[in-house]
Specification:
The protein is α/β, with parallel strands linked by helices. 33% of the residues lie in helices and 21% in strands. The strands form four sheets. A five-stranded parallel β-sheet has the order 5-4-6-7-8, sandwiched between helices. Strands 1-3-2 form a three-stranded antiparallel β-sheet. Strand 2 and strand 3 form a beta hairpin. Helix 1 crosses helix 2, helix 2 packs across helix 3 and helix 7 crosses helix 8. 44% of the residues are buried.
Length: 279
């Protein structure tokens, strides 16, 4: 089964149900860093900042980003890097890249400017998506990455060398793009930690990512549809994205990515959200 089939199935069968919830207990995210037509849900003054996204809207936003990439002439197999914190924006962008037939390159949000440049060059990245947390690091190398032909900015008032991702998506179709995908297609290039040297790229296919979901279904863990899943691990890591994001979404869990994990606030997150699983 192709990775994006899971999202499309859930959108078709459970469109109105909640798929993603973002709770940031440490600080409110900039309201400008939201989707083009996002509905914000804000709790009381002493409650965490919260955003929700249904399965149907999740799929539509993924389609919009896929159609944006295709409108720029991107071909199947083009590498698209994502440099974002854990957030709701991450996953529709990830699925949109796959729907366009492109390959996702998750970037470690702790990388320095030189490390970002190294990984972009090593993976032959042609498109980069990044957020406001990384402007100063990108400023330092923007003129040193000639292979990156397009840079989309997820936020307000981006640097002059970027384009407004959300504004452009607002003009793109929310229908699924007509791209033929297979289980053997490359899905993502993940980088090793670089503990003993420079980070190394590891390619995963649709099949290899989905194998995790299949293994989980047949293990002894008890789960039910709409279980709540608290995602703490950074999405840029293979384990964080495959086990912490892709797997719970394919199993129809409601996923809660935490943009910035603060250990002292874990108890409050558990009390407020009452997750069935934490990873």
């Amino acid at each position: 089964m192709i990775i994006t089939d899971f999202l499309e199935r859930n959108a078709r069968l459970y469109g109105g149900e909640c798929a993603l919830v973002e709770i940031n207990p440490s600080e409110e995210r900039d309201k400008a860093v939201t989707w083009w037509d996002f509905n914000l849900i804000e709790s009381g003054a002493d409650a965490p900042y919260r955003r929700e996204l249904s399965w149907k809207d999740f799929d539509r936003r993924a389609n919009r980003f896929a159609n944006l990439l295709l409108s720029r002439g991107l071909k199947k197999g083009t590498k698209v890097a994502v440099l974002l914190m854990n957030c709701l924006e991450w996953l529709p962008i990830y699925f949109g890249i796959l729907k366009a037939g492109c390959v996702t390159v998750p970037m470690n949000y702790r990388y320095s400017s030189d490390e970002i440049k190294y990984c972009l060059d090593l993976a032959d990245v042609e498109v980069l998506v990044f957020g406001p947390e990384f402007v100063s690091r990108m400023d330092a190398i923007a003129n040193e990455i000639p292979n990156v032909k397009m840079m989309f900015y997820v936020g307000k008032d981006g640097p002059a060398y970027t384009e407004d991702c959300m504004a452009l998506m607002g003009f793109c179709s929310s229908s699924a793009p007509p791209v033929a995908l297979t289980e053997e297609d490359h899905a993502a290039i993940y980088f090793s930690s670089g503990t003993t040297g420079f980070p190394k790229g590891v390619v995963l296919t649709n099949d290899s990512v989905n194998a995790v979901v299949i293994n989980f279904r047949y293990c002894d863990v008890v789960y039910e549809d709409n279980d709540r899943y608290l995602g703490i691990i950074p999405v840029f890591s293979a384990y964080g994205l495959v086990c912490g994001m892709h797997m719970p979404l394919c199993l129809r869990f409601t996923l809660v990515p935490i943009p910035k994990f603060v250990p002292q606030q874990l108890g409050k997150l558990v009390r407020d959200f009452r997750p069935n699983h934490i990873i």
